[in-house]
Amino acid sequence: MAQQVNEWLIALAVAFIRPLSLSLLLPLLKSGSLGSAILRNGVLMSLTFPILPIIYQQKIMMHIGKDYSWLGLVTGEVIIGFLIGFCAAVPFWAVDMAGFLLDTLRGATMGTIFNSTIEAETSLFGLLFSQFLCVIFFISGGMEFILNILYESYQYLPPGRTLLFDQQFLKYIQAEWRTLYQLCISFS
Questions:
Q1: CA pair distance 23, 19, nearest whole angstrom
Q2: Rounded distance, CA 176 to CA 38, Å?
Q3: pLDDT (tens digit per residue) in 38-95
Q4: Is the Cβ–Cβ distance between 28 and 117 less than 8 Å?
Q5: Which of 94, 99, 117, 176 could in theory staple to 129 by disulfide, Cβ–Cβ 3.0 to 4.6 A?
Q6: pTM
């Protein structure tokens, strides 16, 4: 019984890593926009429950030995979550940058305010555009899309699988940054 509880807790910890690292970049799931870190962790815990039996069946505990092999597992999960969060956060960062650019062009850069969704200071138009995008994101089913990507990532990249960081990966990251700046200019 105690062994099963330990196995379920390890599976829960492994399942929690990817959504947690996703939430560190996605403005909608940051603790500032949800009210507190406890509430954010509760939301993230509820996101891990659908995938928990699948991770438990993969017997992740077999991969975790007495040595430091679990560091590779944790690092891989964090990187996958960051990549999903990075791709999902690009439009939010772009509209905030566009608002900041518009406020700079109209000479209102001294009036920065704190934006709780991105947990940073922003301009008035940046906050307006960010809030507007949040509403559109939820209305158009964006959160469902993000959750589908998160759950499908467990199918394509199961925990413990090695990640390859080759030239294609770097080109992908470069293309995402280019998209961020193109969206910023086009939104403004």
A1: 6
A2: 31
A3: 887 888 888 899 988 888 887 766 666 667 777 888 888 899 889 888 888 888 888 8
A4: yes
A5: 99
A6: 0.77
Sequence letter at residue 14: V
Q: Tokens at residue 73, please?
A: 């597992």
Residue 146: other Cβ atoms inside 10 A = 20
Distance (Å, rounded) from C-alpha 137 to C-alpha 155?
Answer: 25
CA distances from 184 to 81, 101, 128, 180 (A): 24, 8, 15, 6
